[in-house]
Specification:
about 325 residues; 14 strands; single chain; five-stranded antiparallel beta sheet; about 40% helix; Rossmann fold
């Protein structure tokens, strides 16, 4: 499974403390279908331990074998998939190719600096000189991972986080599915009956009321908040704070009518502007015909994941339909 940046770096630190050498590999460029996005990480120690993923296939096996025996001493590029034979050998999709950056990561201070940034939910830009290997840290200002003729830059930031309001069945499946996707998951519900019936002992419910919890959470642009208690007294309490935060996604369970009424309440009784109310995703989730709590949770996470990855679900569907239409037109010709 692809590890988070924090998991990769903690693995690196553990190996460095034991005297091992580390090679950090980053996805710098992709062509065609790519199994991992630009910026993805794989760390390989001189003992053969590895953390993270850059392809999810045979590329890892080849890299681990090479880099465990011969850790890199300077920044270098590694290409996979330049020929059809290579793509077949390494299990890359048709037309797929990867350009990777490999660099020695043996400075414990460097690793600890990145871990501290991520653990305190700060985002930074890390630039590496391709000529000298010198590392520079810069404030993150919406830059993306990028390979230039002189530098490789990658963005290091906190784990994506999901705050779930409501400890019913939908909240339970949301928590389980989101953990599988690598989210840090937090769950809140002030209702005693739901608290006593919460079935996930490894994920204890937060103490307090949702608005207070969100207020104290230091919500940032890598946080999503979803209200699925299906109780206006609980859900609206959370939304009062969530819609004023920097969360990249705020959603609430309910029908179109329920959400229309909710938006009206927020405007008329809580002095929310039209722009603030329009940030609310509701009805929450993608329309996949979901009926059961597990299906509803799946639809919600699909929408959150799309937006996290920079895709507006409606536009993504339109683009896909355009591709299908173009393919059909080509077939006709």
């Amino acid at each position: 499974m692809q590890g988070s940046q924090l998991e990769v770096l903690n693995g690196c630190l553990s190996c460095l403390v034991q005297g091992e050498n580390i090679t950090l590999v980053s996805v710098a460029k992709t062509w065609g279908t790519s199994p991992r996005p630009v910026g993805s990480l794989l760390a390989v120690s001189s003992s053969g331990r590895f953390f993270g993923s850059v392809s999810g296939g045979c590329v890892e096996e080849d890299l681990i074998e090479q880099l465990a025996q011969h850790p890199v001493r300077f920044v270098q590029k590694i290409m996979y998939g330049e020929t059809a034979e290579e793509r077949h050998r390494f299990g890359l999709p048709c037309g797929g190719a990867l350009e990777l950056m490999a660099e020695p990561l043996n400075d414990i201070k460097d690793v600890k600096c990145l871990i501290d940034h991520i653990a305190t939910r700060k985002t930074c830009l890390r630039k590496v000189s391709l000529e000298t290997g010198q590392v520079t840290y810069l404030p993150w200002q919406q830059q993306a991972p990028e390979l230039s003729p002189t530098h490789w830059q990658n963005v290091f930031g906190p784990t994506w986080r999901l705050m779930v309001i409501g400890a019913g069945e939908t909240g339970r499946y949301l928590a389980e599915f989101a953990q599988g996707l690598g989210f840090e998951v937090l769950v809140s519900d002030p209702r005693p009956d739901y608290r006593s019936n919460w079935p996930l002992p490894d994920l204890p419910l937060l103490q307090g009321f949702p608005d207070d919890i969100i207020q104290d959470l230091n919500v940032d642009v890598r946080t999503a908040i979803v209200a699925v208690a299906h109780d206006p007294k609980v859900d609206d309490m959370a939304l009062l704070t969530a819609l004023k935060s920097d969360a990249f996604y705020v959603g609430a369970l309910g029908s179109k009518l329920n959400n229309q009424e909710r938006r009206t309440r927020l405007r008329e009784h809580f002095d929310f502007s039209e722009a603030e109310v329009n940030q609310l995703h509701g009805p929450v989730g993608l329309n996949i015909g979901s009926k059961s709590p597990a299906e509803i949770a799946l639809s919600i996470l699909a929408e959150i994941t799309a937006i996290k990855n920079g895709i507006q679900p409606g536009k993504a569907l339109e683009k896909k339909e355009d591709q299908i239409s173009q393919t059909a037109a080509c077939d006709i010709r």
